[in-house]
Amino acid sequence: MVTDTISDMITRIRNANMVKHQIVQIPSTKMSIAIASILKDEGFIEDFEVYNETFSKYLLISLKYMGKSRQPVICKIERISKPGLRVYSNSKKLPKVLNNLGIAIISTSKGVMTNVKAKERGIGGEILFYIW
């Protein structure tokens, strides 16, 4: 059993991206569905679907590549807040990732969102990971 589902999701996406797989299967949780919808809205993945089987639920995420050489859209994905060391930030000190070329995924009291949306709404939270 996996104790840190966010790190598991990030690792599966990173590994599938490195070997240029088209889809990746991830165990489904409310957090992973929220993260996948943000990644789709921001253009880092093509699409995702939730599958319910008799004993398990999982996500199928379709990864995105550019050009004939199939360069991955996701250059780097880096976990920030971990179960052993949580990292929080208020709305005024939210990070800029590569001068706003990348995004930070923030878990707030109003749900999971990007650093740009959290700054607009004036709320802070736990910084889950950076992606660019």
What does this structure look like?
Its main location: plastid. Keywords: Chloroplast, Plastid, Ribonucleoprotein, Ribosomal protein, RNA-binding, rRNA-binding. GO terms for molecular function: rRNA binding; structural constituent of ribosome. This is Small ribosomal subunit protein uS8c. It is found in: Plastid, Chloroplast. The protein has 132 residues and is an alpha+beta fold. The chain has 2 domains: 1-73, 2-Layer Sandwich (Ribosomal Protein S8, Chain: A, domain 1), CATH 3.30.1370.30; 75-131, Dna Ligase, domain 1 (2-Layer Sandwich). The chain contains 3 helices and 10 strands. The strands form 3 sheets. Strands 6, 7, 8, 9 and 10 form a 5-stranded antiparallel sheet that branches. It has a 3-stranded antiparallel sheet with strand order 1-3-2, covered by helices on one side. The chain has a two-stranded antiparallel ribbon with strand order 4-5. The radius of gyration is 15 Å and the shape is globular. The relative contact order is 0.17.
In short:
The chain is α+β, with helices and mostly antiparallel strands. It has helices spanning 5-18, 30-41, 115-121, and strands at 23-27, 45-52, 57-63, 65-66, 71-72, 77-79, 88-89, 103-108, 111-114, 125-131.
